[in-house]
Amino acid sequence: MGKTRLEAFSDGVIAIIITIMVLELKVPHGATLEALVPLGPVLLSYVLSFAYVGIYWNNHHHLLHAVQSVSGGVLWANLHLLFWLSLIPFVTGWMGENHFATLPVAAYGVILFMSSVAYMILVRFLTRHQRENAALARAIGSDRKGHASMALYAVGVALAFVHPWLGFAVYFGVALLWFIPDRRIEQTVHTA
Amino acid sequence: MGKTRLEAFSDGVIAIIITIMVLELKVPHGATLEALVPLGPVLLSYVLSFAYVGIYWNNHHHLLHAVQSVSGGVLWANLHLLFWLSLIPFVTGWMGENHFATLPVAAYGVILFMSSVAYMILVRFLTRHQRENAALARAIGSDRKGHASMALYAVGVALAFVHPWLGFAVYFGVALLWFIPDRRIEQTVHTA
Amino acid sequence: MGKTRLEAFSDGVIAIIITIMVLELKVPHGATLEALVPLGPVLLSYVLSFAYVGIYWNNHHHLLHAVQSVSGGVLWANLHLLFWLSLIPFVTGWMGENHFATLPVAAYGVILFMSSVAYMILVRFLTRHQRENAALARAIGSDRKGHASMALYAVGVALAFVHPWLGFAVYFGVALLWFIPDRRIEQTVHTA
Amino acid sequence: MGKTRLEAFSDGVIAIIITIMVLELKVPHGATLEALVPLGPVLLSYVLSFAYVGIYWNNHHHLLHAVQSVSGGVLWANLHLLFWLSLIPFVTGWMGENHFATLPVAAYGVILFMSSVAYMILVRFLTRHQRENAALARAIGSDRKGHASMALYAVGVALAFVHPWLGFAVYFGVALLWFIPDRRIEQTVHTA
């Protein structure tokens, strides 16, 4: 089965997720700087989530670029990933509106953690699907970066209960780590 | 006429439907676990609807994959299906916010029933369109699974009036039934 | 210049327009039939607008299918059409929430009228663009159907001031008229 | 790496941005002309932003049309541009609802300025990427139009503090300037 429509559908869902988050930036009624101040945390959480959804789109782009064909299981693994990503606008709004309180920051990390688990499941389905995707499997290798991120999200959730900004700092750090798209795939596949 | 734009438009509409449902998960004002509790039923109905819209996208994907060309009637049958699917966010929100009360659960089943009718009409238009789609007709066969689902949705609506959770249980069961994409099409067409 | 991205962008915008209209169907707080009753007019106006946006997508699909290449002017004429279509959700909501009062029904007709003007301008740009699109020009011919619709929308707006339902009846009638996609293009181009 | 998915994702995000702005046109509760009056400024700011987002889509379309391949850096530069564009609905709503007060008009100009900076960075990444894109580099040349716009946005922001309508007039003027798509690219590349 072709991968074109899977890419198109995923692009659509991810494009909507990344854009509807801005609806949480409610237009303030006053026209003063003071009216903008309460939006500060909302904007900050928006920036982080925009980066994360962008990272997922980027890696998803690279991942499927290296894939030849998809199975029925891949369709479901992909929907599962989109489900967790679709909850990012909710936790983004919750974290922003509550000015980075403990529980929302922890919840944000839980969604990041579940998204990374779902991404890993998708990778697993793709590499197991058929021999054609062997280049991908070799490229991904043991996927230390993915496992490290998952562990760091868990650490971030735990640290959020010590102090929310510690959790936020961890999420921010992992985002920086992923800012560089998955060059492993790009290189192995393109030199193959 | 080509099917590419039909697929692209359907992907767009279905991607938006599956994503705007999350807007019903209104960000709570408190940062406590108690503030999240009322969202439980909303989240549960969201999960069910995400699965259903995902199932429709999946089957739509398989269905059109097996199709060579589309007629004007197919365009309208497809829009008709998208119309009923577009009401899923509404009944999802109604069911979730009213904590699975009788009428909303029944209404949810009615929309599922109408969507399955619309899907069946689309299949009918596609198989009758031209001989090129004969492989599809053979693959679908008598479509027992589709007819069974329609009957079960009707049963679910009736049972919702006995107890809403009975209706919900039926919808949940049918979703599980459809979780596996329509392998009949995949096999017949791909071995053809 | 290729037409693929123009189609993709238009599909995206039209898909969003047709889907966000459902957000006007606000989830009622009660779980009773009485709570649904005020939504009746909103649903009715939603159905009409869904049909209209579907008709525009359908005709747009046929129109661009017959086109070989697009100019810069076509991009703007297309955006101009999308602008008027993007106001359909607004007038749909206004008409529905005010239970088909005079002014909203007239405003709805004005937007339909402007959309049909914008569509005609787009057709003009496409047929004048280059000789390659000559097949399209011949197919469209004098476009009596388009001109008749424009005149009927104007009549509908005027009649809305006599009685809103007269205006609505005219819009409904024109929608039926357009339900059949533009077969002129389909035939001429496909037999060419 | 191919540019198809980059175009598809950008089209999706830009299509959503241009369409969700209409959600700021809140449906008035009354059915009178008076009920529409307060929407005047909101509609005016919507028209300007629709034109701007349309201009960006148009130029983005032309820009990537001239490109052969994209690097990882281009993906990020593109996301950076989409980020600033995604804030346009927010400042549009703020400017409209506050009837073109000083600060919202200035903020609107800041977002336009940042968007033009982001566009310039994207152009830089594309032209530096590889020799294949040399035709684009030659076509863009010194990009006087882009630099002039950036300067004019800054002037508009400053003038907004003198009188908001002066700022608005500048933004309006720059939009007119860009109404014509980037013919430089179209010509150079197509004659090459």
Write a brief caption for the model.
With 192 residues, chain A is mainly alpha-helical. Chain A contains ten helices and no strands.
Strands of chain A, count: 0
* Biggest sheet character of chain A: none
Query: How much of the residues of chain A is beta strand, in percent?
Result: under 5%
Oligomer: homotetramer
- Helix-strand category of chain A: mainly alpha
Radius of gyration of chain A: 18 Å
Question: If interface size is counted as residues with C-beta under 8 Å from the partner's C-beta, which chains form the largest one?
Answer: B-C, 33 and 33 residues
Order of H and E elements of chain A: HHHHHHHHHH
What is the terminal-to-terminal distance of chain A?
Answer: 23 Å
Q: Which of globular, elongated, flat, extended, rod-shaped describes the shape of chain A?
A: globular
For the record, the count of structural domains of chain A works out to: 1
Helix content of chain A: over 70%
Mean of residue pLDDT of chain A? 87
Number of helices of chain A: 10
Low-confidence stretches of chain A: none
In words, what does this structure look like?
The structure is a homotetramer of 192-residue chains. The two termini of chain A are 23 Å apart. Chain A has helices at residues 4-20, 33-36, 39-65, 72-86, 88-97, 102-129, 134-140, 144-162, 164-178, 183-191. The first copy, chain A, has 192 residues and is mainly α. The longest helix of chain A is centred in the middle third of the chain and has 28 residues, at 102-129. The first copy, chain A, is built from ten helices and no strands. The first copy, chain A, has one domain (4-191). Chains in contact: A-B, A-D, B-C, C-D. Chains A and B meet through helix 1, helix 4, helix 5 and helix 6 of A and helix 1 and helix 3 of B.
